């Protein structure tokens, strides 16, 4: 990040009341994954709808062996579609998480500068509030941990 963009992030975070971790490019990474997820999920649901109806036939009280076979085939097709969906989305999610880590690591000094700026503002306002130098860093690490907890979001169990 350039000095101008760092200044912009700090200024934007002060104006919006958000921490720098909430207004960095890393937040945009996840937004892109979410947008692609929304598109892919919509397409998946359209493909799954008729297959789910076929699958439900197996749960009728009276059904022939052919209906049971069609229902099992539909269940397998559903599984294959979910696997394809996960194969598309997993690399995007993993890429976003690894880029996020790189961004967070590179911005730690800037987060500390942001806290120093906040402390200077509080001194000028004579509020008596002093913020820990690493507070913004903790917020960034917390956001990364939250993103990391979604690393297996695109996983389908065994058939």
Brief sketch in words of this structure:
This protein has 159 residues and is mostly helical.
Q: What oligomeric state is this?
A: single chain
Largest sheet: none
Instruction: Decide which structural class fits the backbone.
Output: mainly alpha
- Mean residue pLDDT: 81
* SSE series: HHHHH
Q: Compute the gyration radius: what is it?
A: 24 Å
Q: State the total count of DSSP E strands.
A: 0
What percent of the residues sit in helical stretches (DSSP H or I)? over 70%
Domain unit count: 1
Please state the overall shape, judged from the principal axes of the Cα atoms. rod-shaped
Low-confidence stretches: none
What is the percentage of strand-forming residues? under 5%
Q: What's the tally of helices? A: 5
What is the terminal-to-terminal distance? 45 Å
